[in-house]
Amino acid sequence: MNAFSRLAAVVSLASLFPLAALAGEVEVLHWWTSGGEKRAADTLKKLVEEKGHTWKDFAVAGGGGEAAMTVLKTRAVSGNPPSAAQIKGPDIQEWGELGLLAELDEVADEGKWDTLLPKQVANVMKYDGHYVAVPVNVHRVNWLWINPEVFKKAGATPPTSLDEFFAAADKLKAAGFIPIAHGGQPWQDGTVFEDLVFSILGPLGYHKAFVEQDKATLTSDKMVEVFATLKKLRGYIDADAAGRDWNSATGLLIDGKAGMQLMGDWAKSEWSAAGKVAGKDYQCLPFPGTQGSFAYNIDSLAMFKLSDEDDRKAQNDLARTVMDPQFQQFFNQNKGSIPVRLDQDMSSFDTCAQQSMKDFKEAAAGDGLQPSLAHGMAASSYVQGAVFDVVTNFFNDPAADPKKAVQQLAAAIAAVQ
Ligand code: GAL
Predict the structure, then answer these.
(1) Mutate-to-test residue for ligand 1 from 375, 377, 381, highest number of ligand atoms within 8 A of CB
(2) Which of 152, 169, 242, 303 has its CA 20 to 30 A from that of 58?
(3) Are residues 224 and 326 in the same domain?
(4) The CATH number of the domain where 112 resides is what?
(5) What does pTM read for this prediction?
(6) Which residues form the signal peptide (predicted)?
(7) Whose CA is nearest to atom 6 of ligand 1?
(8) 91 shares a domain with 236
(9) pLDDT digits (tens, 9 = 90+) for 153-179
(10) Ligand 1, atom 5: nearest CA belongs to which residue?
(11) Separation between Cα atoms, residue 391 and residue 19, nearest integer Å
(12) Pocket lined around ligand 1, Cβ cut-off 6 Å
């Protein structure tokens, strides 16, 4: 075979396997491992595979993603990061500073991301003016989940204020139910704490505390009240809460053993996976005292620099897929979140998602839209870790003093600023 016919053979083989010729591999690190969230992650895997690429799943279990971030750091330090990783909020800037993230500007221009995304979201995805991450969804953290059947049996009323919340908890307790399904893990304690700050300090006070980390706000009487309320709330969780995963806590509601859960709307992924219907089998209420406000948690996939050309193409296809309206619909209907595109048709979404989208837009028009601290949106992971330490220690110590806790909070944050 001469050189020309060898080339012709290669060319014709390539035309026989066009997908294989363009196919690459994407390794994606995430922590979507609960039953419901896995269904959502699988929708992304399927769409990427349909484009001819290989999906290498890099799932690291552990709600809130702390374990996943530790594993990611180890992989990055050894010079072998995955193609994409679930990195969120201000952390994207830190990875960008290390020079490890790939630019997605070409895909973003072609997909008109700047026009499709809320500005606030687009800015978080950019490092030094360039897109380095693609947003997947918008989660709302300040939700209260309710099993209406349990409420009915206990004669309790869905609460709209903190007083009503504790009144409902008393009724549930008296009727023999677990009033509040909780998992004693630092990020879950932090999620509950954040809800109380949002409710008691309001969106502007919340902003001052967590985004500005203003000392006077962190040590204010209102913050003392937050810790005192957290202590009270502790009396309504069951003795087995320590270490429990968030999805097991949701399971207690689904099984009719508990009445309420304070959790972001990824909890809905479990209800959906169990075939339950929003507004009928379960109710989503803005956490009492935070009506009209929205604590956001945006999941995003940051892209790492790769040397293999085919893998780079696969990485770009992954980014394109994430912004695709069909993916935004399938994924978010399974995940419990709302789409990140402003132009998305919401008619096939359930009542909780529709309310979430409405509240998101309304909150964005005023001061009500605030970044979640417990989910890495408001501050660095160091500040987040400092808050978790103080809150979890307080939560686990029945003798802890709210007045001392606020001083510890301010000191712990100052130490990592
Ligand atoms: C959040 C993440 C969500 C969900 C949740 C529970 O931080 O943004 O997508 O996975 O943790 O693990």
Answers:
(1) 375
(2) 242
(3) no
(4) 3.40.190.10
(5) 0.94
(6) 1-23
(7) 63
(8) no
(9) 999 999 999 999 999 999 999 999 999
(10) 64
(11) 52
(12) 31-32, 37, 63-65, 139, 246, 266, 297, 299, 375
